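Readers outside the structure-tokenisation community will struggle with the description of the input data as it stands. What matters is that the chain and its backbone geometry are given together, residue for residue. For illustration, here is how one protein appears when written out as sequence plus structure tokens:

…
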Amino acid sequence: MAEKTNLSTYESIMRSLKARQFVPVYLLMGDESYFVDRISDYVADNVLGEDERDFNQNVVFGADVTASQLADMCKGYPMMSEYRVVIVKEFQNMKNLEPLEKYLEKPVPTTILVLCYKNGRMDMRKRIVSLASAHGVVFESTKKRENELPGFISTYIQSHGATIENKAAFMIAEHVGADISRIISECDKLLISLTENDKRVTPELVEEKIGMSKEFNAFELRRAIVEHNVYKANLIVKYFNKNDKAGNIFSVIPLLFNFFQNLMIAHYSPNKNNEAALARDLDMRTGWGAREYITAMRYYTATKTMQIISKLRQIDEKGKGLGNSNTSKEQLLSELIFFILH
């Protein structure tokens, strides 16, 4: 049986790097390239001084070097420096890893090898994974789930000495989606706009700087549905149908599908009336995130929730042109919201 590989976290790796506690190999992989790039860029920019890099740092691409050539680079000792750094971009394109595996059996302690396996996950049964785990760290950068994005945004803003209102974090998450690089870019735009006297990111600031309405967006539509506020939901739908960029069937369906899937879990949870416990059941970071589900259970029974999930699938298929020849996306959105609320 293959030995279980312990995966390191982004936070633990960055703490060690900043403390200059280096290991001989970093195997970085996953579907979310942002964290892989952050770690490899930190190593490239901070392990060696500028005057040391010419002789002691190599950045290569997996398709351009063989595993044998890479092993030879790693075996070299640093010149007038404490470390030698070798970074492999797009490691997934390298073939025949046996020579590299041979090197990793006994890696040179003064060499820091960073392997960046992008847009996917290595087979964890491969020998190179167990060798990297034995002599260094293995990190998998996974895509953030929708319900994790507001918490990630809040943490990022707080790490830069500011605060963000929950609604503002949800607005950014809903507007940008699970593109971490874009989320960071939008958060940086907001942080730059803050003054010394006011370090709060508010919905009004998000509306001003990112260009989305704080009253008419998919997040507010979901809230109106949760609270069974028929009037407000219809107002937002009418706004969407006149302003396609603000929201449409394609942006609304994933948000509502995720919500009603979780609502079905909430209905059958033994902790349906306990915010903190229900949040754990729904894999949420904070108790307040479960409040919407507790509210929604008053208006949507388990049977109705299942019917809504089925309707969402049906409308999604029609929106993609399956079994639908002439119903517009505006009509589909109106039909969906009417079904949910009645």
